[in-house]
Amino acid sequence: MRLRAAHVRVRVPATSANLGPGFDALGLALGLHDELEVRALGTSDVRVEVEGEGAGTVPDDETHLVVRALRVALDHVGAPQTGLHLTCRNRVPHGRGLGSSAAAVVAGILAARGLVAEPDALDDDTALALATELEGHPDNAAPAILGGLTVAWSDEPGAAGPGAVRAVRLAVHEDVAPVAVVPPGHLSTRAARGVLPAQVPHADAAWQAGRSALLVEALGRNPELLFAATGDRLHQGYRREVMPASLALVDALRSRGVAAVVSGAGPTVLALARRGRDGTTDADAAIADAFGGVMAGWRVLPLDVDTAGASVTAVLD
Ligand SMILES: Nc1ncnc2c1ncn2[C@@H]1O[C@H](COP(=O)(O)OP(=O)(O)OP(=O)(O)O)[C@@H](O)[C@H]1O
Ligand SMILES: N[C@@H](CCO)C(=O)O
């Protein structure tokens, strides 16, 4: 397949996965975005400029995650590889549980969609399959691509091969007000997955299945249920040893009635707050109180739910 453009822009949201009980399945797109400009070069050079999150730390060569994903997507549709000049304006914090790696991967795939002559060859289903292969799990990639609240799953594998990765997008109640509390230190998803057990008690799995179903109702139609619906027994407790301050904050907020969870693989804490008529949320006072002024360097980010998902915002010659 030939390229139709030499210059594209894309925009991809931050995402929070798990949301408490929906481990590796539920995810929410947030109103905090990475923006990326990609120019296809006539040479084989790769140039990467980064402004904001990751500047000075992410690689500026073929190993850059956006470049890797873009190349996977071009190969997938049989398009020619090309030299690349990337300009990244990054706002999603890295290694904090806000889906930065999924945002980078989806940005690369959407940039390829913008560049190739038949963008439908990289439609949302294909983008989700490619992104999941690169990420290892679909719960950030799905909301990054589709926006809103998503439930992702894999079809059962069969004779035809491994099961396809699928996702549905669900509406989020307008009173749901996510607040991310972001610590200064980072933790890789790989490290946070490394402390999880290979097996969990059947009773915990059964308990979790109920909470996870309840959470879909709470986020979509009945925010009063958010506190009950955001319990977890499959990952947060096991992860306490690698993010004690985050779990202490989750405990402090929950003891004040706030539906707080670890965002993704942490260490960010996400409060799924409820917005009142005056625009404040039921988490504002609790967060200020729980902090007690001692959590130096942590940032409190009230965020909208992103309903658009990733998009190619410009296709230029
Ligand atoms: N915009 C980006 N450009 C290049 N590399 C990135 C970008 N964003 C993330 N990365 C790479 O991904 C790593 C972070 O990925 P990781 O999966 O550990 O955390 P996360 O995606 O931020 O959190 P989570 O998966 O829990 O939501 C960074 O350290 C960096 O190597
Ligand atoms: N479900 C994944 C999300 C990581 O982004 C985890 O908790 O490890």
UniProtKB/TrEMBL annotation:
Which reactions appear under catalytic activity for this entry?
Answer: L-homoserine + ATP = O-phospho-L-homoserine + ADP + H(+)
UniProt keyword annotations, A-Z? Amino-acid biosynthesis, ATP-binding, Cytoplasm, Kinase, Nucleotide-binding, Threonine biosynthesis, Transferase
EC no. given is 2.7.1.39
BP-aspect Gene Ontology terms: threonine biosynthetic process
The record's subcellular locations are:
Cytoplasm
Pathway the protein contributes to:
Amino-acid biosynthesis; L-threonine biosynthesis; L-threonine from L-aspartate: step 4/5
Under the GO molecular function aspect, what terms does this record hold? ATP binding; homoserine kinase activity
Q: Which residues bind ATP?
A: P93, H94, G95, R96, G97, L98, G99, S100, S101, A102, A103
Domain (GHMP kinase N-terminal) spans: 65-148
InterPro entries found in the cross-reference section: GHMP_kinase_C_dom, GHMP_kinase_C_sf, GHMP_kinase_N_dom, GHMP_knse_ATP-bd_CS, Homoserine_kinase, Ribosomal_Su5_D2-typ_SF, Ribsml_uS5_D2-typ_fold_subgr
Q: Which GO terms describe its cellular component?
A: cytoplasm
Q: Sorted alphabetically, which Pfam families does this protein's record hold?
A: GHMP_kinases_C, GHMP_kinases_N
Q: Give every GHMP kinase C-terminal domain span.
A: 220-278
PROSITE patterns hit by this protein: GHMP_KINASES_ATP (PS00627)
Protein family membership: Belongs to the GHMP kinase family. Homoserine kinase subfamily.
Described by its record, this protein's role is as follows: Catalyzes the ATP-dependent phosphorylation of L-homoserine to L-homoserine phosphate.
Protein name, UniProt field: Homoserine kinase
Origin organism is Cellulomonas flavigena (strain ATCC 482 / DSM 20109 / BCRC 11376 / JCM 18109 / NBRC 3775 / NCIMB 8073 / NRS 134)
Which lineage do the record's taxonomy fields give for this organism? Bacteria, Bacillati, Actinomycetota, Actinomycetes, Micrococcales
